Amino acid sequence: MFEAATNLLQQHVDEINALNVFPVPDGDTGTNMFLTMQSGVQGINDTQAETVSEVATAMYRGTFMGARGNSGVILSQFLKGLADGFDGLETFRVKDIVIAYERARQCAYQSVGKPVEGTMLTVISSIADSAKSIELSGGNLNDLHEAVCIAARNSVAETPTLLSTLREAGVVDAGGQGLVVILEGLRRYVTGQGMEGLKLEMIEPSSLESADGVVSEEFLTEHEEDEYGYCTQFVIQGDALDLKQIRSQLDEIAHSTVVVGDEFAIMVHAHADDPGNLISMGVSNGQLSKIKIENMDVQHNAFTAARRDEMETFTSSVVAVAAGPGISDIFRELGVSELIVGGDTMNPSVGEIVSAIAKAPSETVFVLPNNKNIVPAARAAAEQSPKIVNVLETLTIPQGISAMFSFDLQADVDTNSVAMSAAMTDIKSAAVTVAVRDATIDGISTKEGQYIGLLEGDIVIVGDDIKKLTLGLLGNVGVDDGSLVTLYQGDQLSENNADVIGGAVIDAFQGAEVEVVQGGQSHYHLIISIE
Predict the structure, then answer these.
(1) Whole-angstrom distance, CA of residue 182 vs CA of residue 176
(2) How does DSSP classify residue 515?
(3) Where are the domains of the chain?
């Protein structure tokens, strides 16, 4: 469970980091939470833990010593609550995890000097409440994990209503977002759902009309000159340490305090103008280790500069529709910001396209439908979006890829529009698929199960041998010396057969450059680009 949660969290580090706001700086929340979870998993691997109790305890101890930042320390206390709730158990049932989540709530709130709602604490509280309601209704473990994830997501979406800083910045709480990802990882393991290719859709503030998943420029401008002091973290080790006394001492000289531990080891995290006072307080109570001091003013300046660089970099961005892991990877590598899975038989809705446009990191967005049936929905989405949206009517995947080769993040909108439009018209698109029924179209008859070759969407050739048909199809195109022919291999065509076809194309059109690429698309054995 913990490994699954950590793996899923790793996939979302950047999105969570993008939510960091000041004046509650915590480095990079996503990074801190991931490294904290990673330390916990390592703690388990370093032991012979087998029971639920042993594993949960090892996880807590690993995260306690490896906790990074405010969010990491609070996360370690959430895990301490689970360990306390599972104490002595070999396995767990619904009633056990309900107790564990309630204990996690208590530990998390007790760890913070001045608890603030609209943060991870609020989300943890919603988790405990939701788990209890499932127990009362007689639900099973799957029901519980499903309900907990829903409750956490809803709680995160509402964090801006509780914390003005989040509302002003236009984002949800980063720590809460991280906790949602962790819970989803736990749920997917418990329910037997796989992890690969299943990134989460990040939560946006439900109380705001629009949010793009990053701190707003207005917020950066208003807080650009703010000062924050030093983020200081260390572990106090000793005998008979007084946790309450140390918390009280810390509250007098610092803020954003989180103090956790026991009589032998106490983790301290705090913000102060003078870190020396914090270190002196720690030394007066015991021996110090894992000392970490960060100048938050430097951190803040770097944060602001990085966010401004991101805003300046994305003069415009691109939303594209595509299917197939290989083709999707190509679009991402070429600079597509938001990718919508779709195509033939999977036309995305207007709402899905509007949502993708909203998430794109710029006010000007290009949309590549890459399918003639998706163009109307893309146009409708452009009309509904408050952003400046340019729908480039790419009718095929090759047209979309060609347009992306001419997209320049640094160029202005007009330059990109002209270059991308010109590139998409310079390409010829062909495809090979199988007829699903007998038909006669434009004088060409085909039987169910036969291969059919399409050029710009029209059937031009039919046959029973895919290699011969592909050569005949390219003969209809008119491949010249110096042409580039790219064969995108579909998921119904083996790699060996794709290579055989590619070799045949090389032999037949010796003046052309031929490349076989794994596209992974459904329905089409080959998508072919000729330029």
Answers:
(1) 10
(2) E
(3) 2-223, 230-300, 314-425, 428-530
